[in-house]
Design goal:
The protein is mainly alpha-helical and 184 residues long. Helices cover 54% and strands 2% of the residues. The chain has a two-stranded antiparallel sheet. Strand 1 and strand 2 form a beta hairpin. Helix 3 (59-77) crosses helix 5 (90-107), helix 3 packs across helix 7 and helix 7 runs antiparallel to helix 8. The longest helix is centred in the first third of the chain and has 19 residues, at 3-21. It is elongated.
Length: 184
C-alpha cells in the first residue's frame, strides 16, 4: 500500500471514529393521541328509525348522482352561475363538484370528511343574493323530485342545505361615510 493510501485511510478512520462513538439518536416521540375526532359525520345529522339521512337517501352514490343532476338544473335556474365558473379549469370544476358531494355526505350523517374551505370564504365576492339562494333551493328541490327523493327526507335535506345559507349569501356592506362638500 502506498503512503498516500495509508494516510487517507488513517484520516478517514480519525474522522469516522468520533461519529461512531456518538450515542445513537433516540427515536422521535410517538404522535400524540388525538384529542378530538377528525371532522366527519355531522353531529347535527338526524337519525330516524335507526338511520341517518345519508342512509335514508341512498348513501354516497345517490348523493353523487343527485349532485351531478343538480348542477345542470342550477345553471338553468341561475344564469349568472355560468359567469361565476368562467375561467375555472376542468380540474377545478371536478374538485368543486367533489367538495359539494363530500359536504352533503358529511352533513347528512355519512362517513365523508369535508376538507374544503369554509363556505363564507369559498363564496366571498360571488354576490349571491337571497333571490339566487331561493332559485338554487328550487333547482335542488326539482332535482330531488327527479331523483325520486320523497318527503320527509326531501324536506329534511333541503333544510340541511338551507342551514348553509348564512355563510353563503352576500351580506350587504355598511355604507361608508363620504367626504362631500361641507363635511366634517
Amino acid at each position: 500500500m502506498s503512503v498516500k493510501r495509508v494516510s487517507a485511510l488513517i484520516l478517514f478512520l480519525a474522522l469516522a471514529a468520533p461519529l461512531g462513538a456518538q450515542p445513537p439518536t433516540p427515536p422521535p416521540p410517538p404522535n400524540p393521541p388525538m384529542t378530538s375526532p377528525p371532522m366527519g359525520p355531522s353531529p347535527k345529522a338526524t337519525i330516524k328509525d335507526g338511520k341517518t339521512l345519508y342512509q335514508r337517501i341512498g348513501g354516497y352514490d345517490a348523493i353523487a348522482k343527485t349532485v351531478d343532476a343538480f348542477l345542470p338544473n342550477l345553471i338553468a335556474a341561475l344564469e349568472k352561475l355560468g359567469t361565476m365558473a368562467t375561467g375555472l379549469s376542468d380540474a377545478s370544476k371536478v374538485r368543486n363538484r367533489q367538495m359539494i358531494v363530500d359536504q352533503i355526505c358529511m352533513l347528512t350523517g355519512g362517513p365523508c370528511i369535508f376538507v374544503g374551505r369554509p363556505n363564507d370564504v369559498t363564496h366571498q365576492g360571488l354576490n349571491i343574493t337571497q333571490e339566487d339562494w331561493d332559485k338554487s333551493q328550487g333547482a335542488l328541490a326539482k332535482t330531488l323530485d327527479q331523483m325520486g327523493v320523497k318527503d320527509p327526507d326531501k324536506s329534511e335535506l333541503l333544510a340541511v342545505i338551507d342551514n348553509l345559507k348564512g355563510d353563503i349569501i352576500q351580506k350587504p356592506k355598511p355604507p361608508t361615510a363620504g367626504r362631500g362638500r361641507g363635511g366634517v
